[in-house]
């Protein structure tokens, strides 16, 4: 592994600045000289009724396991995501893992001693920054485990409890403590999810064993307070929903939501619209219960492309595709501060996070940052039914602002190329020629990974290079002119590269 010396760092800094200038210059020149011939033309019509635009994507983000939430860098990253992206909840594994000491000991008589000090520290922090925990009840403390089977680098125990009553004692003590500390009204606003992906290696029991765990856990929670929210089965690949719902209804069990997980790489061969297809089926199966996708991202393994503009185009395409299907989604994960397979030290390693271990935002982070700024009314947009390019527009009446987002997305190894896009807006009270603001995410914009590669992909970074990479990740604003014609305005045409995103902000 290569370290970076001070002299090398200085040289790389100059190289990086040169690279930044080189990367941005062609984009600016090409924007100024775009020919509208062959352009894809989209029309935003402000005269037509709008529909509700829910910010469901920012309800929650995922992270690794609970112990990480005690780290200073984890907290700094989450506070930044809260500020820039507007996220409200965070989900993590392992609140009952032995490394957190929630169940401190069990004596010879079976008496359980708890330590909520670490959990208090985590929850205190979340509330202090205006966030809440989405509480995944996992994994099994060693003292309650029926066998010694583990998952991940940090060894979360995946076995059913040897005594289900002892398990519910733990859950009950934990939740009663949180109510005493934070108040019943606060804890009623949280979500309690029973386990994680019991249909995979995270659970060594059977489906019937998981249903038993859910039965004991959900009843115990509702005995504390009937308005606490509990759900499951938190399965991978949108599985078990019909069987789980049938079991719950047949046994008259409490259920406030159905949760599951889906990644676009779960279904092979890859399909561009797979998330909408799967989500729609899950909603039908779960009805009348709301559906929460408590894990998703641009790909669980290859080709997730988490460091690349691909992930930002994936986000923009899918957020508008599944807008009215699910209650909310939780992007896995907000940061590369993560250690399921050990802690990777490379600055860019295609980790799941929206930002790197050095707090450098990735392209998908910037996509969510743009989305956070959108209003609450989706406008009517007409245009070509293109295989990779789409556009949507969101109105903010209070700010007198429209944000128009164009994306050029396809799954890897499928046809996609740079396209020319022209946007027309009709029906807004604009009386003269003017300009809007254009922001881009693509290979040459908001792409810190490309800048890191351009300076030789150093394995370890000093703060000066981290600072420069953060600058490379930032959204840059350009003026984009429009021309008034009758009751509409038309923006200058612009290039939209493969897996690229462009956002135009128009104030009126």
Automatic annotation (TrEMBL):
<dbReference type="InterPro" id="IPR000514">
    <property type="entry name" value="Glyco_hydro_39"/>
</dbReference>
<dbReference type="InterPro" id="IPR049166">
    <property type="entry name" value="GH39_cat"/>
</dbReference>
<dbReference type="InterPro" id="IPR017853">
    <property type="entry name" value="GH"/>
</dbReference>
<feature type="active site" description="Proton donor">
    <location>
        <position position="197"/>
    </location>
</feature>
<feature type="domain" description="Glycosyl hydrolases family 39 N-terminal catalytic">
    <location>
        <begin position="44"/>
        <end position="479"/>
    </location>
</feature>
<dbReference type="Pfam" id="PF01229">
    <property type="entry name" value="Glyco_hydro_39"/>
</dbReference>
<protein>
    <submittedName>
        <fullName>Glycoside hydrolase family protein</fullName>
    </submittedName>
</protein>
<dbReference type="InterPro" id="IPR051923">
    <property type="entry name" value="Glycosyl_Hydrolase_39"/>
</dbReference>
<keyword id="KW-0732">Signal</keyword>
<comment type="similarity">
    <text>Belongs to the glycosyl hydrolase 39 family.</text>
</comment>
<keyword id="KW-0378">Hydrolase</keyword>
<dbReference type="InterPro" id="IPR049165">
    <property type="entry name" value="GH39_as"/>
</dbReference>
<dbReference type="GO" id="GO:0004553">
    <property type="term" value="F:hydrolase activity, hydrolyzing O-glycosyl compounds"/>
</dbReference>
<dbReference type="GO" id="GO:0005975">
    <property type="term" value="P:carbohydrate metabolic process"/>
</dbReference>
<keyword id="KW-0326">Glycosidase</keyword>
<feature type="signal peptide">
    <location>
        <begin position="1"/>
        <end position="22"/>
    </location>
</feature>
């Amino acid at each position: 592994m290569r370290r970076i010396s001070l002299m090398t760092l200085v040289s790389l800094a100059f190289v990086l600045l040169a690279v930044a200038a080189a990367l941005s210059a062609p984009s600016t020149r090409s924007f100024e000289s775009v020919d509208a011939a062959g352009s894809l033309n989209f029309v935003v019509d402000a005269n037509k009724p709008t529909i509700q635009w829910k910010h469901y994507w920012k309800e929650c983000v995922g992270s690794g396991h609970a112990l990480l939430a005690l780290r200073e860098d984890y907290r700094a990253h989450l506070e930044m995501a809260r500020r820039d992206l507007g996220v409200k909840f965070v989900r993590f594994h392992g609140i009952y893992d032995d490394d957190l000491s929630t169940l401190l000991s069990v004596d010879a008589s079976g008496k359980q001693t708890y330590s909520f000090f670490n959990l208090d520290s985590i929850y205190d922090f979340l509330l202090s920054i205006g966030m809440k925990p989405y509480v995944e009840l996992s994994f099994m403390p060693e003292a309650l485990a029926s066998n010694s089977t583990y998952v991940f680098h940090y060894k979360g125990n995946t076995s059913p409890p040897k005594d289900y009553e002892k398990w519910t004692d733990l859950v009950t003590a934990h939740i009663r403590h949180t109510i005493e500390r934070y108040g019943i009204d606060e804890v009623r606003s949280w979500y309690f999810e029973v386990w994680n992906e019991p249909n995979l290696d995270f659970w060594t029991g059977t489906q019937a064993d998981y249903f038993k765990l859910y039965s004991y856990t959900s009843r115990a929670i509702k005995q504390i307070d009937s308005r606490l929210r509990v759900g499951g089965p938190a399965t991978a690949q949108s599985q078990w929903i019909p069987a789980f719902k049938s079991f719950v209804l047949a046994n008259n069990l409490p259920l406030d939501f159905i949760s599951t997980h889906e990644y676009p790489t779960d279904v092979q061969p890859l399909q561009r619209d797979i998330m909408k297809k799967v989500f729609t089926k899950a909603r039908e199966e779960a009805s009348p219960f709301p559906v929460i996708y408590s894990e998703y991202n641009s790909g669980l393994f290859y080709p997730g492309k988490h460091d690349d503009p691909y992930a930002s185009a994936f986000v923009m395409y899918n957020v508008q595709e599944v807008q009215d299907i699910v209650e909310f989604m939780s992007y896995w994960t907000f940061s590369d501060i993560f250690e399921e397979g050990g802690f990777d030290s490379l600055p860019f390693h295609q980790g799941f996070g929206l930002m790197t271990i050095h707090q450098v935002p990735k392209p998908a982070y910037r996509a969510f940052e743009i989305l956070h700024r959108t209003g609450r009314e989706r406008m009517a947009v007409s245009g070509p039914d293109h295989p990779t390019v789409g556009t949507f527009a969101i109105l903010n009446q209070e700010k007198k602002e429209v944000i128009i987002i164009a994306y050029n997305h396809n799954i890897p190894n499928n046809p996609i190329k740079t396209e020319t896009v022209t946007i027309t807006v009709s029906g807004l009270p604009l009386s003269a020629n003017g300009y809007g603001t254009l922001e881009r995410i693509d290979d040459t914009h908001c792409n810190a990974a490309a800048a890191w590669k351009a300076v030789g992909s150093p394995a370890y970074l000093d703060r000066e290079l981290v600072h420069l990479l953060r600058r490379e990740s930032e959204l840059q604003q350009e003026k984009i002119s429009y021309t008034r014609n009758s009751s509409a305005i038309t923006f200058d045409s612009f290039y939209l590269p493969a897996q690229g995103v462009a956002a135009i902000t128009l104030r009126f």
